[in-house]
Input
Amino acid sequence: MYKNIVSSDLMASLGDFSWFSPNYKDIGTGDYVERICRVLAEHEWIYNFQLTRFFVEKVWEKLPKEWREPLLSFSTDDLNHLPTGRVKDDWPTSLKDFVETVASLALPRQQSHDLVALQINKDLARGMTPKKKHEVSYLASVVRDTCRKTSCGTVIDIGSGLGYLGQVLHHQCGLQVVGVEAQASHVHGAQRRIKSQGKDADTQIQTVNLKLEDTSSCIDDLELLINTLQQSPSKDQSQTDVFNRNNDVERDNGTCMVGLHCCGDLCPTMLKMFASVERLKCLVCVSCCYHGMSVTDPDSRPSCFMNFPLSRTVKEKLKKVSTDFPEWQLNVFAMRLAAQETQARWACQTYEDHQFHTRSVAYRAILEHVVTTGGKGIQKLKRKVTKKDAFQSFPVYLEAVFGRMTLHSDETAQTEEDWKKYHDALQQSHDQWEEFFPYIEVITALQVLLQPVLETLVTVDRCLYLQEQGLKTEVVPIFDDRISPRNLAIIAER
Output
């Protein structure tokens, strides 16, 4: 349907990924997944740590020695373009091979050229941020086209929030829409928004308060909701009426399930629902916040998540690679990186941007180091977020810290001497680690290089899961990732 997608032929046959990467034209999906897993396992040190523990864990010591000199000599342009796979002839072979291999493994992120944004009318766009307007305009266009292709006249918008997407789908695309929202305040907000625009909230567009969960009762609720979409609810009907109306009428068209930036477990739950509920004919889902997925066992390896992996293929490959790397774990740190900004924004960083990022990471890591190693009398009781202006210099940061810090110890009172002791410990830590500050941007650049590979593994796993249920699936980069970094839409149909 669109360019820049994982082809439906691949998804139908567990074939190869040759259409987007000539480097893998001769291997199958399983081998491709295994290569991703091996790269991630071999270079776990790049992402498997808490950023504020940079000095506590001495992360830079894990950087291969032959990489250090060339990486530390990087210009701003070199830093910005390393995640694109650009290498230099004078780099060590191992560094060049690593950068080129990682860059070749990721799914394409450039927005599909075939997409045309829906022009949202002025009334419906009211209240949308520029980012939200960008997302809704493109997602609505994709949903409209997918519904036409699959003969769907109704849409269930999961995690509908204030109803921006649903209102556009109804009023500009002619689709009947029910928003499903877990937060009651958002349900009321969506209803107020429609009424404020002079629209009829109870005819062809509604929002119901329901938390989508992977349970049989929730599947029953969803089945009932689909049945009720056959009828046009009257203006006087309540949400309770929507769930309790007669469900014995057959529809002559299908229902599409949609989700914009479904966090944590919500996207995997949607995929399972779509696979289970026959009357859902198509799915369009954009994920986010992978680190928000439920953790089953923090010590479980190679994954600690309940909903990752989902597919048999990725489960098998993770198990195989973990035999060679028994301590490797795809954990919250890995998934947090998968949900970070893409290289598109990183490529626009200035020298001053890199310097600010270095200071912000270093100063917070120094505070963490002192808190971790300081001992009695300089332990933290609580700490509030330090404002951006505090990172101008270390003295300014210290002043901000002491304005927002409460000390705690076994002693009955804190004296001026205690505060001076803490101040001296922070300054000493700064002086101790200052020479290692340049490693912060180097390792961050390597993280930006790995970010799309981690996100690719999660996305491919979800697509393969749908495939294994006999569903036709594709992945489309539907947003400009400079505006909306989570831009991969999973589109599936029966």
